[in-house]
Amino acid sequence: MPFTAEELRFMMRFREGEVTLDPGDYLFHEDEALTSFYTVRSGQGARYKTLENGDRQLVNFVFPGDLVGLAGTVTGATTAAVQAVAPMRLCRFRKNRLPELFAGHPDRAYALTWIAAVEEHFLGETIATLGQRNAIQRLAWALLKVHQRLAAVGLADGAGTVPFPYRQGDLADALGLSLVHTNKTLAQLRSWARLENGRLAVFDHQKLAELSLSNDDGPIRRPLL
Amino acid sequence: MPFTAEELRFMMRFREGEVTLDPGDYLFHEDEALTSFYTVRSGQGARYKTLENGDRQLVNFVFPGDLVGLAGTVTGATTAAVQAVAPMRLCRFRKNRLPELFAGHPDRAYALTWIAAVEEHFLGETIATLGQRNAIQRLAWALLKVHQRLAAVGLADGAGTVPFPYRQGDLADALGLSLVHTNKTLAQLRSWARLENGRLAVFDHQKLAELSLSNDDGPIRRPLL
DNA sequence: CGCGGGTTTGATCCCAGTCAAGTCCCGTGG
DNA sequence: CCACGGGACTTGACTGGGATCAAACCCGCG
User: Fold this and answer.
1) CA distances from B80 to A57, A110, B11, B69, B186 (A)
2) N or C: which end of chain A has fewer CB within 10 A?
3) CA distance readout (Å), B6 to A40, B3, B9, B10, B11
4) Cα A95 to the chain's mean position, in Å?
5) Fold of domain A133-211
6) Which residue of chain B comes nearest to A103, CA vs CA?
């Protein structure tokens, strides 16, 4: 979840290094013992779990400003893998500096908790989507959310399109649909939104919101500090 | 997520009161502005979202030891309603004491973050379940998890059954299945686990794990402090 | 020019949703 | 004591959304 520029400046002082990933590279795998967590400087990736039968569930897209791996460091083991889809740059923070952060910078620690809470909010929405919405509603919801989040971190161009380097199969895995059905459903939405050469273009937010049945809570307010 | 006895003792000093709920009572509704968060002393409830069309998604069961509403206080508005299913007792904590907590008790603040992280872990698993598993797998997974969590807080009786006052419709809403299909699927599982007069009896954990295709990570370790 | 990954599109199948009756089990009141 | 009613649970018949299988198509690339 996004940080303010000021927060990022602060975090820079606490970081232990920078990580660069090419598309396809893993930041970490499932069940890996984590000693660091990261913030995303640029690029896009995917966080997902794999079940025994090989099925993949993309838990969430990871975008610039997001924080990843906090849960993994804090509980001791990661619960999902994180893989780059577009070239990524991240800042690494060592788990063992966390106590120091909490002790010396309560306001920052609070911000961290705030972020975890927002994350929880998102996951709750995703659960509602997977549990109750049909294919059209899921796609409309997902495209809308993705656009909102990327636009919120300034990645929308003049035409209102945002970078979206994922394949349709990724979307399918995120929404619990088959690749084929995802494709057919995307076709139905083409007049309102479109996936084209690595970008997502949304023509009619209104219509998508309508189709998604989303109790849209809109973009989330940033913490006061 | 569960607290240790020691943590609970500490929290007692920070609380602002106790809340008692009868079955059906709401702790708070969706979109309600929250100024407090709560820990569950006893009883059981449900946290759920309602979409515009009236469909309900039960985001998670709330059990003794759980923390609820932190996300709501921290982001400003609740994202889901919490309703009691069995009589509940909870401790209330005012949001405005949070800065004080973070400033004066970094270890406790850390524990709070830890809890949020664990919550995130659970929600991720739920997402994988809703996205990838079929009806039998979902039910097997859910029954297993519920039993694990309730047993972990000491609610299993000698026979290994745990209190489960929910109706089949609640389970259905939690798993994104219809009531009818949930019922039929439960019938298929009856030799391994059973819902009976407000209790859940699990006869064969092994078998359920097998059926659920769960990469079972088992019960989660508690934080060091 | 052929190859491979991603995208489309068509045909078929089946899991789970929907509709519709029951059945059980209470608690209430005559 | 029994009739009644309502809520939860069952069960059966039918339907449909989305999965699966299969085959093109459309590039960019060696």
Assistant:
1) 23, 22, 24, 9, 27
2) C
3) 36, 8, 5, 6, 9
4) 21
5) Arc Repressor Mutant, subunit A (1.10.10)
6) B106
Residue pLDDT, tens place only, B185-196: 999 999 999 999
- Output the DSSP codes for B94-144: EGGGHHHHHHH-HHHHHHHHHHHHHHHHHHHHHHHHHHH--HHHHHHHHHH
Pairing between β-strand B193-196 and β-strand A161-163 as defined by DSSP bridges: unpaired
**Common-topology check for domains A5-105 and A133-211:** no
Please tell me which of the candidates A56, A106, A176 has its beta carbon nearest to residue B106. Answer: A106
The string of pLDDT tens digits covering residues B79-134 is 899 999 999 999 999 888 889 899 999 988 988 888 888 889 999 999 999 999 99
Enumerate the domain spans of chain B.
5-105, 133-211
* Cα–Cα–Cα angle for A213, A218, A220, rounded to 5 degrees: 140
Asked whether the beta carbons of residue B120 and residue A125 sit closer than 8 angstroms, the reply is no
Q: Which nucleotide is nearest to B177 (CA to C1')?
A: C16
Under CATH, what is the fold of the domain A5-105?
A: Jelly Rolls (2.60.120)
Q: For chain A, say whether B130 makes contact (Cβ under 8 Å).
A: yes
Torsion angle, alpha carbons of A108, A92, A221, A113, to 10: -50
Q: Do B79 and A127 make contact, defined as CB atoms within 8 angstroms?
A: no
Q: To probe the interface with B, which of A127, A178, A217 has the most B CB atoms within 10 Å?
A: A127
> What integer is the mean pLDDT of A37-51?
95
Helical H segments across chain B, by residue range: 5-14, 70-75, 98-104, 106-132, 135-152, 168-175, 179-189, 205-212
Pick from B29, B36, B14, B7: which is nearest to B80 by CA? B29
Nearest to A117 among B55, B74, B103 (CB): B74
Per-residue buried b or exposed e for B201-223, using 16+ beta carbons within 10 Å of the residue's own CB: bbbebebbbebbbbebeeebeeb
Beginning with the edge strand found earlier in the chain, give each strand of the sheet holding B161-163 in spatial order. Answer: B161-163, B199-202, B193-196
Q: Which of B218, B81, B58 is nearest to B151 (CA)?
A: B218
Residue A140 has pLDDT above 60, yes or no: yes
